[in-house]
Design brief:
- The complex is a heterotetramer, with two copies of chain A and two copies of chain B.
- Chain A is of the alpha/beta class.
- Chain A has two domains: about 180 residues, Rossmann fold, CATH 3.40.50.970; about 130 residues, 3-Layer(aba) Sandwich (Rossmann fold), CATH 3.40.50.
- Chain A contains twelve helices and 14 strands.
- Chain A has a seven-stranded mixed sheet, with helices on both faces. A five-stranded mixed sheet of chain A has the order 9-11-10-13-14, with helices on both faces. Chain A has a two-stranded antiparallel sheet with strand order 1-8.
- In chain A, α8 links the parallel β10 and β11.
- The longest helix of chain A has 15 residues.
- Chain A is globular.
- Chain B has one domain: 3-Layer(aba) Sandwich (Rossmann fold), CATH 3.40.50.970.
- Chain B has a five-stranded parallel sheet, sandwiched between helices. A two-stranded antiparallel ribbon of chain B has the order 4-5.
- In chain B, α1 crosses α11.
- The longest helix of chain B is centred in the first third of the chain and has 26 residues.
- Chain B is globular, with a radius of gyration of 19 Å.
- The chains are: A alpha/beta, B alpha/beta.
- Bound molecules: thiamine diphosphate (2 copies) and magnesium ion (2 copies).
- One magnesium ion binds next to β4 of chain B.
């Protein structure tokens, strides 16, 4: 199969869906002329015109509000918030309006809105450009939250998101845009809410998503050399969570580890771990282990940044000491 | 008393405007009563006093146009064609309510009637209105959007972000600020760096105009003018309607931040009284017609209240329904 | 001991600290002339003047930003956000600025800022005035999060918060303002970060905070009639969490239940439950149970609202079936 | 070329202004070089071209006054008296950095020098500046605050909320918009409903004035005028400095949104060249003095870069330090 980057995969998804459906349009800061801070929307303005690919002012709350207004009046907007770190500006609009409007209105409307953003550390950008804030959003009923790790998942899930009649927060990772992987040509859709077993194994279940999937797969390879076969599951959708796939694996391996980049306390791993306990308590041979980011604002220093988030080494060591 | 300019107005229209204002007033009075009797629970921000704004504005637009509303949204919902029984049932949180009892007073909405919703968040609808305008523009439709909000909302960041977007993109949105002098207890004078709220639109390249929000025809004419411009692609406008809420901000409000004299001076200019009198002076309506209308509305409200009270509560299985759209 | 309401206790705390320290001042929507939407700041403007008790415009982001600016330049602001539901407007300022500024600046500043707010359901106010969003904030390192349930805790913790040199999110509950309880006269301070055993017991540990403490204590009384003695612990501070006190109890009772009003998924109970698993796995006879709010926007209907959050009845039933 | 009005200026002051501008320019050029050599990682938004704004503004205030800065904050930090080695070490994330290597380019700050910090969030400092102004007012001090931000930041909600607060309460804050025509790739013309950014202050009851941001003395005079007003209790002001950034928004920016001609036309008016020439024309400084200054600054920068590169990385135990203040 051909290999393309995560960035290209996303760009293809947007392009194909815009071609397919006139009601899809893009809006955000620097998405048009510039092609997106990380280049995801490159050339789409050239292809679809300035009407359908729109640069906005630096007005995150209005971007979300306007996306919602358009979504409930016949359009299918895909809006971009450049960094997830800026979400605190527009979380009122996402949490109170976007996610609740259907329920509050007694089911009388649908919200086909995709909010794209990216998060994560790795570029030594410091505390305002390195966060992983997905756990705020899994606490917002009415929203669906997707965090793809591979180019194929990125494409298949973004296309499905654009066709979905519920609001989606689609979180990319800044360190993955250049990652290459196989992506089927042409129409390729993936179901929202379905986890994927990225590596089969029997000794422990490791749940990892977004960038952490890669560090985890690397650690899994090294563990295999030591004779430990871990099963690596990428939930891909964090809300709703595919606990069935996870629980099935844990019932087989009797051990669960969550690898997450976000700061540990109140993070996504807490919810996943808690659900594992709720579903598989009697099957667990050890407490669910969280391998997570440090509970600190992200420091600028490259040395400290590296220490602040899990890497393959640490994942390898921590899993090994749990399983042995 | 307001001095009206002579306006040519048909009996039908006069009846319609007067009736809607009466409906709103009686709707709000009915809620006051239901609250006193502990039948209506929760917050209700009543629109009594401000009826001319919603009714005048809505008279200037089409059925297929959109509006967005506020926490003080009963009047907008009624004027935009909402059904009184369904709205009253919603206030009481009943299954038959326009939002199935899940929205309540703060979230009255009926997308099928173009009412994109009240909002519990001050300023919270202004972005939505802007997006509806964008949608119209992208679809090449000739609808417009009326975006209602209070004086207090002009101090929110979202107001400014949205007006800038609408102004830049020339979206067909008429922004209507219902300036009732207070945001809860804080007067415009104490909250805003300027008292003349039309200045709030100065950075956004759109016309701004004040009008007498106690005069239903003045509101209608002003909104009509800018609605027409928006409809033909000339972009948004900002209208400030000077008005007053009769009741407290919410039930528990002792209104210590304003004087009885101030309240009286506005009640003396009551929009329903003034319009009724004027229509009689201009011989558009007779005294009896006005009185009959009042009775007609009273009967409607009684029926609406009765319907609402007798309606069942939502069933428990409704709890989880409609969080998501399911294929 | 004299009994006063939660509202009065808070009012006293503010008043005493303002008398004690000229650098303390209050700012927020309707806090001055009106005395606060729920009356917590009643008469403080009359007592301390309009300079130190300030009504603001409806500008939540600026309220937080200005509070922070004042806090790092010599003042000790106590700012109010009227409903926690509005936090999404100013979460950027809280999460990125207030909580991170000390760390980002290499420790060169302190942030003596208290952000008061209130949350919770119970008044059929619908989806925008009934939320419990504390879990967003326990995911913000740099912040401390306090949720007092009793008048005495409210007073003692608010006074300590005002004297603290770290930013505090102080979350009250709208249904508790009229609750009365004993509060010592005069100077009364409580340590931040310390849980309180509200009822001793041996059969299970129940962690409950804010309004849920009351429903839990009621359930505990009924369970006692059935011969089940649960230990009820109120963490009071959610960040940092006093896991020592909780773990000690769980090691004794071997069962843990968390009662929380917030929506379950991604809620505070996930973090507490996960920490219990991490600390007491081998001591647990059953999975940690979450009794939580339904994963929905809060409906207006009083009937549905009541179903959406735990009440004493449900707490009683669920604990009973866990323990039996 | 800018036409300067004759200003009486001492040799010392001329040296000071010119030197600071040179320091900033060379600081930024040094970072460009360090980035090219992959020694500086992460984002750095360079201030080259805009030096006259920070230097002119800071020359108009006192040492004990406050400033807040932006993501493009190196110039502000230097002009507010920051130490070049400490700032450069911070850019490289070193232990000796002004923020111990935890802040980086986006978070340069030194509260002890009155610099309340750069900010990774566009507009994110405007509330902080307003609060510092409130603090001054409450303490009865006679300090003032300069609040810097870009044209793009005027479209954020927080900008408006803050200016309203400052305007209403007459806080001693001078808001300085560095209008470099673009917010990242989006021009003022495409982002803002109005091009004349002074209009942004119209709703806030404060004077607004434009000045030539390439002319250090023009900036100084304008800021001095409003700083004096703020200091004596007359409240805030809004100043727009027209300027230009020479480099791309960030390292990877191909600058397709602007033309080479536009870039050249601004470089032709370079603030350092122009001011150096003018000081020579006015015989305040000699050619040699200017050249010596340049050399002096070059040596300083070499030392700063050397210091920064040789400085150790923060120690691992720093990871968890200073998240909270511990008694
Ligand atoms: C963002 C936000 N802040 C505060 C509130 C609380 N609140 C509800 S209505 C209101 C006053 C609104 O004033 P205005 O916009 O003038 O509308 P009015 O009530 O006068 O119609 C306030 C402060 C809210 N609902 N939302
Ligand atoms: C709230 C927010 N939105 C978007 C960004 C991404 N961003 C960083 S700088 C910038 C442009 C800012 O433009 P302006 O305020 O004019 O400052 P300039 O860069 O031109 O100095 C953008 C969009 C951000 N950092 N913060
Ligand atoms: Mg008002
Ligand atoms: Mg700019």
């Amino acid at each position: 199969m051909r290999e393309i980057t995560y960035r290209q995969a996303l760009n293809e998804a947007l392009s194909e869906e815009m071609e397919r459906d006139q009601s899809v349009f893009l809006m955000g800061e620097d998405v048009a002329v510039y092609g997106g801070a990380y280049g995801v929307t490159l050339n789409l303005m050239q292809k679809f015109g300035e009407k359908r690919v729109r640069d906005t002012a630096i007005s995150e709350a209005a971007i979300i509000g306007a996306g919602l207004g358009a979504a409930i009046t016949g359009m299918r907007p895909v809006v971009e918030i450049m960094y997830i770190d800026f979400m605190g500006i527009c979380l009122e609009q996402i949490g109170n309006q976007v996610a609740k409007i259907r329920y509050m209105f007694g089911g009388k409307t649908r919200v086909p809105l995709v909010i794209r953003t990216e998060g994560g550390a790795g570029r030594t950008l410091g505390a305002h450009h390195s966060q992983s804030l997905e756990s705020w959003f899994i606490h917002v009923p009415g929203l669906k939250v997707i965090m793809p790790a591979t180019p194929a998942d990125a494409k298949g899930l973004l296309k499905s998101s654009i066709r979905e009649d519920n609001p989606i927060l689609f979180i990319e990772h800044k360190m993955l845009y250049n990652v290459k992987g196989p992506v089927p040509e042409g129409e390729y859709l993936l179901p929202i809410g379905k986890a994927d077993v990225k590596r089969p194994g029997k000794d422990a279940t490791v749940i990892a998503y977004s960038r952490m999937l890669y560090s985890t797969l690397e650690a899994a390879k090294r563990l295999a050399e030591d004779g430990i076969e871990v099963e690596v599951i990428d939930p891909r959708t964090l809300l709703p969570l595919d606990m069935e796939t996870i629980a099935e694996s844990v019932r087989k391996t009797h051990r669960a580890i969550i690898v997450e980049e976000d700061t540990k306390t109140g993070g996504t791993g807490a919810e996943i771990g808690m659900q594992i306990m709720e579903n598989c308590f009697d099957e667990l041979d050890a407490p669910v282990l969280r391998i997570a980011g440090a509970d600190i604002p992200m420091p600028k220093s490259a040395v400290l940044e590296k220490l602040a988030i899990p890497d393959a080494d640490r994942i390898y060591r921590e899993i090994k000491s749990l399983v042995m | 008393m307001t001095i009206y300019t002579m306006t040519i107005i048909t009996k039908n229209e006069a009846r319609h405007l007067l009736k809607q204002m009466m409906q709103i007033r009686q709707f709000e009075d009915a809620i006051m009563d239901l609250m006193a009797r502990n039948i209506a629970e929760g917050g209700s921000h009543l629109y009594a006093g401000e009826e001319a704004c919603a009714v005048g504005a809505m008279a200037a637009i089409r059925k297929d146009d959109y509006i967005t509303s506020t926490h003080r949204g009963h009047g907008h919902a009624i004027a935009k064609g909402g059904s009184l029984p369904e709205l009253m049932a919603e206030i009481l949180g009943k299954e038959t309510g326009v939002c199935k009892g899940k929205g309540g007073s703060l979230h009255l909405a009926d997308v099928s009637k173009g009412n994109l919703g009240a909002n519990g968040i001050v300023g919270g609808s202004i972005g939505i209105a802007t997006g509806a305008g964008l949608s119209i523009q992208l679809r090449g439709a000739d609808q417009i959007v009326l975006c209602f909000f209070g004086d207090g909302a002009t101090n929110t960041g979202l107001f400014h972000e949205s007006l800038n977007m609408a102004g830049k993109w020339k979206l067909p949105v008429v922004f209507i600020c219902e300036n009732n002098l207070y945001g809860m207890s804080v007067s415009v004078e104490r909250a805003c760096a300027v008292n003349d709220l039309t200045k709030k639109a100065a950075p956004y390249n759109m016309p701004a105009e004040c009008c007498d929000g106690m005069d239903v025809l003045a509101v209608k004419d002003t909104v009509a003018k800018y609605a027409a411009l928006a409809r033909k692609g000339d972009g948004p406008a900002f209208i400030v309607c000077n008005t007053y809420r009769y009741y407290g901000h919410s039930r528990s409000d002792p209104r210590i931040y304003r004087t009885k004299e101030e309240e009286k001076s506005w009640r003396d200019r009551d929009c329903i009284m003034a319009f009724g009198r004027k229509m009689q002076e201009q011989t558009v309506l007779t005294e009896k017609e006005v009185a009959d209308l009042e009775k007609e509305v009273t009967a409607e409200l009684e029926a609406a209240v009765d319907f609402a009270i007798k309606s069942p509560d939502p069933k428990p299985e409704e709890l989880y329904r409609d969080v998501y759209f399911e294929m």
